[in-house]
Amino acid sequence: MELFGIKFIGASSETAAKVGVTIALVVAVAVVRFLVVAVARVVTRRTDSRALFWTRQISSLAALVIVVVTGVSIWFDDPSRLATVLGLAGAGIAIAAQKAVTSFAGYLVIMRGNTFTVGDRIKMGGVRGDVIALGFLQTRIMEMGQPREVNEQEDPGMWVRARQFSGRIATVTNDKIFDEPVYNYTREFPFIWEELHVPVPYRADRARAEEILLTAVRNASEEFSKQAADARRRLEQKYGLEHESLEPRVFWAITDNWLELTIRFVVPEHGIREIKDGIGRAILGEFDRAGIEIGSSTMEVTVQERK
């Protein structure tokens, strides 16, 4: 092939035609994908983020398959040449892009196995939070804080002492699902069991203290207790599991200093801090009216005067 009197080695008019067709193919597929996403955005009116997310994912994957399959058919019409190129390319990819290939395989596993999707609250790669984007190679998570006892055991530490957003967006490669478990707080059963520990002195009215804890929790959980029961029923039908009762329950633990009352109850995956805040305020108010103190470590010193 010659251009302005210059002869290009290895180039020909056939190669130029293939380049032009390939470019046209990529542009056409990109335009079609853009139009599909635009129509989906108008139809959903940005109110159904998950529907828009799945439209983007499916259209991106379809565009990738179309470009790869059509591009191969354009450039490699000879099967023997195609097999040679695929063998060399496969060997090179396996060595140079092992992490990328594994991450893409992780993406396929996530999608096929319904491991999680956008909007789910998960822990992956040591990061807790809500999934805000899921790509072919990476997952972006809006990070949330963690309870004090968990924070003290993990590195790096977290300054937010509850399950609320920290403001950071963490990016985790999808290959992490092959190395460690993925914890999903919302998939199929969007509720978790929570516990609140309240120490009371042994001389306090223990029965009244237990009644106050149960009343405070029931008042706070009344609005979503029915939803949790419906979700548990669907989970039992699907997996044949028998979960414990969703009714709040108080457990007693005898210690050297006080009686520790632990109330166990079910809460939704979001808004836990607000729920526990309301329960704590209600408990303290009722304790004050009932004359019940909160147990604390104290030391009593007695001074005897000499006569």
The biggest beta sheet reads: 5 strands, antiparallel
Task: Kindly report the CATH topology of the largest domain.
Answer: Alpha-Beta Plaits
Distance from N terminus to C terminus (CA atoms, Å) equals: 119 Å
Q: How many discrete structural domains? A: 3
Poorly predicted residue ranges = none
Element-level helix/strand string: EEHHHHEEEHEEEHEEH
CATH architecture of the largest domain: 2-Layer Sandwich
Number of strands: 10
Give me the number of helical elements. 7
Q: Could you give the order of strands across the largest sheet?
A: 6-5-4-3-7
Radius of gyration: 30 Å
Mean pLDDT score, rounded?
A: 81
Q: Structural class of the secondary elements?
A: alpha+beta
How much of the sequence lies in strands comes to 15-25%
Structure description:
This protein is α+β, with helices and mostly antiparallel strands and 307 residues long. The chain has 3 domains: 95 residues, no CATH class; 64 residues, no CATH class; 100 residues, Alpha-Beta Plaits (2-Layer Sandwich). The strands form 3 sheets. The chain has a 5-stranded antiparallel β-sheet with strand order 6-5-4-3-7, with no helix packed on it. The chain is built from 7 helices and 10 strands.
Features:
single chain; 307 residues; alpha+beta; Alpha-Beta Plaits; 3 domains; five-stranded antiparallel sheet; three-stranded antiparallel sheet; 10 strands; 49% helix
Summarize the entry for a quick read:
This protein is an alpha+beta fold. Helix content is 49%, strand content 20%.
